[in-house]
Specification:
Strands 1, 2, 3, 4, 5, 6, 7, 8, 9, 10 and 11 form an eleven-stranded antiparallel β-sheet that branches. A hairpin with a 3-residue loop joins strand 6 and strand 7. The radius of gyration is 18 Å and the shape is globular. The chain is 17% helix and 39% strand. The protein has one domain.
Length: 258
Amino acid sequence: MKAILSICLVFLCLLAWTNHTIAGELSERLANFPQWEKLTSVQPAKGDLVYPEWMAGSWEVKSTLVDLAAPLAPDIVTPGFEGNRQQLNKPVSFSVRFTQEKTFNYNSLKIISKINNLPQNIIADRAFNSLNLARAYLGDDAVLAVKVDPDSPNRQITFLRPERQLVSIVTARATETTPDGKFITTEVFQQLFKGGSRPYLNSVESTTAYHQLSTTNPAIEADQVTAVYLSPQDPDYFQAGSQPVALYRYYLEFFPQQ
């Protein structure tokens, strides 16, 4: 179970109308790793997260864990943290895709958008991306399926063997575009692991800076940090305060698929 807990922390990292933060806050946050506190400027998540048009398409992603930190160790350490050290500098590859958002009467909307030269919303295929990421880490047999709530793109369930579930709910988000063209996103979500001896709940923040490159090998690179916070139900919650108990930093490379 500890291995599942540690790997599942990254499930939503590749997943609205966008909510903008104060200019520069997210880029400054990445620059200050691992000196982090909880974000206070994120807004409640509404709709889906919209990406720039240059992220549309199918991609082979190579994700490499390049750093990790446990700011409150040895007093507080999350399950699986020490085991994750074995993943340092070992790339993991998986497929993802970003597509046009489908809405009611989509064909009419598409025609109207073309006539008025309106942009199409680009969103992540959450079920596809999360399933591929989970299987890349845990193996095909360990992950049965990923289902997204048809009424909300911000809620999904990952079904694991044997009879375990990871329920993930995006509660808040923000985005930022830097002067040098980086697109930075942050999402805060609650994770509930069900099926073990007792349910395990935590809060996770994923902040990612995407950068379009002038080449196709790779075409996009990204700097990503996943921060884990204790839930109010945890006995160490007040001791941890607003600090994360675990931080994972990844380097992502996106290669276009034919």
